[in-house]
Specification:
Elements: E1 9-12, H1 18-29, E2 33-37, H2 41-55, E3 59-62, H3 69-80, E4 85-88, H4 103-131, E5 134-139, H5 142-146, H6 152-172, E6 177-185, H7 197-202, H8 209-215, E7 226-230, E8 233-237, H9 255-260, H10 262-265, H11 275-284, H12 290-297
Parallel strand pairs: 1-2, 1-4, 2-3, 4-5, 5-6, 6-7
Antiparallel strand pairs: 7-8
């Protein structure tokens, strides 16, 4: 059975071009009503016209900055009376080494990516809670997950989005609001500023859309997870933790003991685990926390 979005209102930020435009097209093709957000009025209007012509979709444009999330969401509510799906796609790059980075270059990237994602989610949160339904896809980056030279501003913003997403997933669970985060890889106008043209041309945005579409669907089974997608590759990303070393709390310990036990602290060969899985259990029973258990055992 084809996965469809009939009756659902999808808000896509930065949808005037690139990945955002593609998300708008793929969701409209499957029945969603689409709000195309882009500060470039001509680009937003062009995409809206495409959606109406190509699919007979209900679509409308919003030209506000994502930093003014309340205005963006207000447009969606005015047009269609609800917001069921959000893809926080809008973004900018200001690549420069950290030593040469200006305050304006830092502030702009943090404002657009991190604050913009917050502002959109914040404005839509109450409507989603009231309707007991929401699907939010936030956008991180492999550079936010693993770091990259020349992108301290971008990496910081995108890393912040990961923690933000995981928290919203927990808070939205009881209201059927599922929030996930994706690190997409595709050739777009933004990546063209930092990648060779042949890679940009071959690394098609079309290869990312299917995973984003699924994360937007009512049947998606997961929330609070991180995904990578690009070039036909789709994967789940998890933080992994070593078994670690537990100090003897009956004795004092300092950096000397850390040095002596360093091999144990960094050893992934045995007993490593995934903190996300453990945290899900701890949310239900805080006493499952390993550190708390150790302290309680010595009381």
């Amino acid at each position: 059975m084809a996965l469809r979005y009939d009756g659902k209102v999808a808000l896509i930020t930065g949808a005037g071009a690139g990945l955002g435009r593609l998300y708008a097209h793929t969701l409209a093709a499957r029945g969603a009503k689409v709000v195309v957000n882009d500060m470039n009025k001509a680009a937003a209007d062009t995409v809206v016209a495409e959606l109406k012509k190509d699919y007979g979709a209900e679509a409308g444009a919003d030209y506000n900055s994502v930093v003014d999330g309340a205005a963006v969401v207000a447009t969606a509510l005015q047009l269609f009376g609800a917001v069921h799906i959000i893809v926080n796609n809008a973004g900018v790059l200001r690549d420069v080494s950290f030593g040469r980075m200006s305050q304006d270059q830092w502030d702009l990237v943090l404002a657009t990516h991190l604050h913009g994602t917050y502002a959109i989610c914040k404005a839509a949160w109450t409507p989603m809670r009231e309707q007991k339904y929401g699907r939010i896809v936030n956008v991180t980056s492999v550079n936010g997950l693993y770091g990259q030279r020349g992108q301290a501003n971008y990496s910081a913003a995108k890393g912040g989005i990961v923690g933000f997403t995981k928290t919203l997933a927990k808070e939205g669970a009881r209201d059927n609001i599922k929030v996930n985060v994706i690190a997409p890889g595709a050739g777009t106008a933004m990546t063209a500023t930092v990648m060779p043209k042949e890679i940009v041309d071959a690394w098609k945005p079309d290869y990312v859309a299917p995973l984003v579409n699924y994360l937007c669907h009512e049947e998606v089974p997961t929330s609070g997870d991180i995904f990578e997608s690009g070039g036909g590759f789709c994967a789940l990303v998890k933080w992994k933790r070593t078994e670690g070393w537990y100090a003897d709390l009956d004795k004092s310990f300092g950096p000397e003991e850390i040095k002596a036990n360093w091999a144990k602290i960094i050893d992934f060969s045995e007993g490593s685990d995934f903190p996300d899985d453990e945290k899900k259990a701890e949310d239900k029973d805080p006493m499952r926390n390993k550190q708390i258990k150790q302290i309680l055992a010595r009381m």
